Amino acid sequence: MTAHTVEYIRYRIPEQKSAEFLAAYTRAAAQLAASPHCVDYELARCEEDFEHYVLRITWTSTEDHLEGFRKSELFPDFLAEIRPYITHIEEMRHYKPTTVRGAGASVPTLYAWAGGAEAFAGLTSVFYDKVLKDDLLAPLFAHLDPEHARHVALWLGEVFGGPRAYSETQGGHGHMVAKHMGRGITEPQRRRWVNLIQDAADEAGLPTDAEFRSAFLAYVEWGTRLAVYFSGPDAVAPPEQPVPKWNWGAAPPYQG
Ligand code: HEM
């Protein structure tokens, strides 16, 4: 369960009022957009019956909606726009999302886009060949488990939307974090890791499109900075949590 609350407001608006209703909500939406308590909103119109509309507003919590937004200086302007339509409301209630949620397959995962398990196995094989020849990194990996490259490939595959292979065979997020603890990774070593994995991505033939590589690098930046933190003297092991999931972010794949 997330803390977020989804408010659904169902309207039945007579056809002759629909243009002014939409215009009023277009203006009222400015107050939602300005509210730190509002996560997102969407007004949808029924395709089968044009008089039906559903407004979905995700609030940071029910209390934030009722005590935050409704008592904020944004609310009077919001209410002034929508007041004429209050009598047309058929339902206005708060809902809590359940665990049944997810994304469909209309956008391929980064894992599928990269080429699946084989692509990540190729990447980490090239990468650790480089690591073991590298002056800054080789000392850190002096006692490398021969299975290491394969484990990291499973990890990356899971992070990028592939099967839960690392969680199911290696022990999940906590196990991966523990592998870095006490290793005292320095910033120059982290940066070298970042550089070498990008060289390896080129050599292993991972896709070179801007969208894939920017998402890939964003994860590598995030993950390596966490690795440095967890390897340091002040690290506190996190509570057990699922392997992070990385997605395309602001630039989804170009599917011309
Ligand atoms: C996105 C960044 C990173 C990822 C995804 C990653 C992934 C992993 C994983 C999955 C393991 C455990 C392997 C296993 O279960 O056998 C591991 C271990 C390790 N990682 Fe990382 N790592 C990252 C960053 C770094 C960096 C920046 C360094 C050092 C410069 C580093 C050094 C190590 C070392 C020394 C081990 C232990 C190897 C051994 O077992 O001997 N990692 N890493």
From TrEMBL:
Gene3D superfamilies per the UniProt record, alphabetical: 3.30.70.100, Globins
Pfam families in alphabetical order: ABM, Bac_globin
InterPro entries associated with the record: ABM_dom, Dimeric_a/b-barrel, Globin-like_sf, Globin/Proto, Hemoglobin_trunc
Domain ABM: 5-95
Keywords assigned: Heme, Iron, Metal-binding, Transport
Descriptive protein name: ABM domain-containing protein
Originating species: Streptomyces shaanxiensis
